[in-house]
Amino acid sequence: MINRRLKNLMFTAITLMTGMTGIVSGSAAETMNLTIGAGKAAIEIPDTFFPTEGFVGVHDKLHVRTLLLDNGATRLGLVVVDMTSLFEEELGRISEIVKREGHVESTNLFIAASHNFSSPHIMHGQQIKTEEEKQKIEMQVLNVDGFEKRILYNVAKLYSTRLKKAQNYESLEPVIALAITDFEMFHEFRKVILYWDVREKETLLKYSDDIELIFVELAKFTKTEEELHTITDKWIYFIKHAGELDVIPTSFRESPLRDAFEMANTASLTEEEFELQSKRRDFIVMQRGSIEKARHDGIQEGIGLTAKKMLQAQLPLEMIMKCTGLTAKDIEQMGKS
């Protein structure tokens, strides 16, 4: 069974592919007064999606393909998706995307599934509609104690409070928590995005899709503008560097990204909004400085206590200097205090 994430990946691929499908004229087409455009894009499935339905990874990529035909009066579109089947909801979304990106009316659009059984299934009725799905999105710029527990608490609260009086447990809807941090939380992983869910400890068999935690660690993202090839990379790059961008990157061809850039552009802020944003930025900088100073002071205090205990144990001065990094003069003053 394919989940919400793979559907969104499919729609993203269709958006990218249709947006890049240019209508061009060829020599044969010109004699018929016909212009034609074709495009293909891969459905980029992350490794964290697996295992599912017996699949453990990607051998050959799944694709979506578009063919656009225009005779000057009418434009037709053909979309083929590498899936076993498509249902009304998916057809409606694809039709909206192609109309927006390719300017093809739904009455002139043909959509087909390749009936490929080397891909996971889109099961009818399994997709949770947006209005029924709850998402918890949090941006965290300061690494404070208890942050990871707060994420769990908020997700558990959001999930449990959705059950109204007299409703049964089947009425509970999925909750997705997206935490975007400006620091590293999981030092044992080098991946920028980590997906967590509820699984059996030894076999890793998934218990439920109802609760999912997604962490995006901006500190691990080091790609340059020239290395942005996926829509996910572009969004992460935008979130990390939005405050530094004077002009929109040339690779940002997708409408949502361009809209986000315009919203983040300080030139469009009122004087009051700009002042509020500046104060917020100054507050974050000062908080970071306070945390760093407290960390430094704590380390120095610990070194001092260690040195005093070593002096009390009458250990050699050279050993105390080597273990603490203090000078002989510093250690001598500690012995007098």
From TrEMBL:
<feature type="signal peptide">
    <location>
        <begin position="1"/>
        <end position="28"/>
    </location>
</feature>
<dbReference type="InterPro" id="IPR010106">
    <property type="entry name" value="RpnA"/>
</dbReference>
<dbReference type="Pfam" id="PF12784">
    <property type="entry name" value="PDDEXK_2"/>
</dbReference>
<keyword id="KW-0732">Signal</keyword>
<protein>
    <recommendedName>
        <fullName>Transposase</fullName>
    </recommendedName>
</protein>
